[in-house]
Structure to design on (200 residues):
């Protein structure tokens, strides 16, 4: 945790955002980043999507009903929310603000719609686009998951083309080809932003 030069209240944390096509490996990179930086906090998103095998409520996502999600929107509880592949996803504002005010950096794993909303609301956030080496590689990864039908895979690939076209809007584009190399690139990225904050 960083403190200001007067030794008083911790410096406000920074928000890092992972976005990119479904199946590109955002979850794996998120897990690695959290293991590399003990003071990096992951903000668990809400979703109306049913959990996949091995996903845990409150750890991977807060799995909620469509009604619960609508109530949270009405209550202004989301920092961002969007419909992705037919399901709703949203980031709880209170949890992000609480961690950042305590001086902890926060990591979000969201879609491109949510990333755009966060850029408007918190322009100082660091947006990182995780891209596949190619659409062929992405399709292979989606099929290896064995969690989607042919129709859903086709939808995700079509959405991926649109998402990749928006990658120039991000602070950094990282191609997830070699996992070890990608993790090291991310580690250096986090460190560079932290060092720049300490120098201010």
């Amino acid at each position: 945790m960083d403190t200001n030069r007067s030794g008083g209240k911790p410096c406000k944390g920074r928000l890092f955002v992972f976005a990119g096509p479904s199946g590109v490996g955002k979850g794996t990179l998120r897990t690695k980043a959290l293991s590399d930086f003990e003071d990096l906090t992951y903000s668990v998103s809400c979703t109306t999507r049913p959990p996949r095998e091995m996903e845990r409520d409150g750890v991977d996502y807060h799995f909620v009903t469509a009604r619960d999600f609508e109530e949270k929107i009405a209550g202004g509880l989301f920092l961002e929310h969007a419909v992705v592949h037919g399901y709703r996803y949203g980031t709880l504002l209170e949890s992000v603000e609480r961690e950042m005010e305590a001086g902890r950096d926060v990591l979000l794993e969201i879609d491109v719609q949510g990333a755009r909303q966060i850029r408007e609301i918190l322009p100082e956030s660091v947006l990182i686009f995780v891209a596949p080496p190619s659409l062929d590689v992405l399709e292979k990864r989606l099929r290896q998951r064995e969690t989607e039908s042919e129709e859903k895979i086709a939808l995700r690939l079509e959405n991926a083309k649109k998402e990749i076209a928006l990658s120039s809007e991000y602070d950094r584009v990282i191609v997830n080809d070699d996992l070890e190399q990608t993790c090291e690139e991310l580690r250096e990225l986090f460190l560079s932003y932290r060092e720049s904050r300490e120098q201010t």
Q: What stands out?
A: The beta strands are 15-19, 40-42, 46-47, 62-63, 78-84, 87-92, 105-109, 126-131, 172-175. The chain has a mean pLDDT of 90.
